[in-house]
Write a structure and sequence with these properties.
Largest sheet: 4 strands, antiparallel
Shape: elongated
Oligomer: single chain
Number of strands: 8
Protein name: Transmembrane emp24 domain-containing protein p24beta2-like
Strand order of the largest sheet: 1-8-3-6
Keywords: Membrane, Signal, Transmembrane, Transmembrane helix
Distance between the termini: 122 Å
Radius of gyration: 30 Å
Helix content: 40-55%
Order of helices and strands: HEEEEEEEEHH
CATH topology of the largest domain: Jelly Rolls
Domain GOLD: 36-123
Structural class: alpha+beta
InterPro entries: Emp24-like, GOLD_dom
Strand content: 25-35%
Main location: membrane
CATH architecture of the largest domain: Sandwich
CATH class of the largest domain: Mainly Beta
Length: 215
């Protein structure tokens, strides 16, 4: 009977883990130049762990490539600042909620360019499993399962963050490659034009000298 109960709890917890991981992919939004966009999330329990990450997906041409970061300010229920990112194209942070309530996440785009941002937010609450445990010997098992959930999510979280950063770097590299190719083509065209002009001038010079010699 105990074995069946344990198996039942394991199946339920694993299903919860998979369900919660499916909802942890985050979302993408747009923010116009010199604008601010804020999001709110309710944390139900003190001691919950809040995971945050973001990546600026859009990449702009020319000199703006090196300066297309955004600001992110995280504030608690009383308006206290918890953490901030300044002029970053990506960031990852986690913190323990000291109070239950509404937490705000405000992005600021100080550049004149439109930006596209992928934002991930997740709250981990482990005590949920213990609230439904009746037998004392289930506690160690549920504790290990809760840690397993956190480990699986951390891997998923970091993998998703790295994939977005890799995609963004690919866009940057592609843009740089195009500029290098265009620059090389312009330099080649300029060199060819200079060579043709030199040949033309030398030919005219020889023709003039030849004409002078005949006279």
């Amino acid at each position: 009977m105990i074995v069946r109960s344990v198996i039942g709890y394991v199946v339920i917890v694993v299903m919860v883990i998979l369900w919660r991981l499916q909802g942890s992919a985050g979302f993408t939004f747009d923010i116009d130049g010199e604008e601010e966009e804020c999001f709110s999330h309710s944390v139900q329990y003190e001691g919950d762990i809040v995971h945050v990450s973001f990546v600026v997906i859009s990449v702009h041409p020319s000199s703006h490539i090196g300066n297309n970061g955004v600001d992110l300010v995280i504030k608690g229920p009383l308006g206290e600042q918890i953490h901030d990112f300044r002029d970053k194209t990506s960031g990852k942070f986690e913190f323990t909620a000291q109070k239950r309530g509404i937490y705000r996440f405000c992005f600021s785009n100080k550049s004149p360019y439109h930006e596209t941002i992928n934002f991930d937010l997740r709250v981990s609450h482990f005590s949920l499993f213990y609230e439904h445990a009746k037998e004392e010997h289930f506690a160690p098992l549920l504790e290990h399962l809760a840690k397993l959930e956190e480990a699986i999510y951390t891997i998923h979280f970091v993998q998703h963050w790295i994939e977005l950063k890799t995609d963004r770097q690919k866009i940057v590299n592609d843009n740089m490659s195009r500029r290098v190719i265009h620059k090389a083509m312009l330099e080649s065209a300029a060199l060819l034009g200079t060579s043709i002009l030199q040949v033309y001038l030398l030919r005219r010079l020889f023709e003039r000298k030849l004409g002078t010699s005949r006279v």
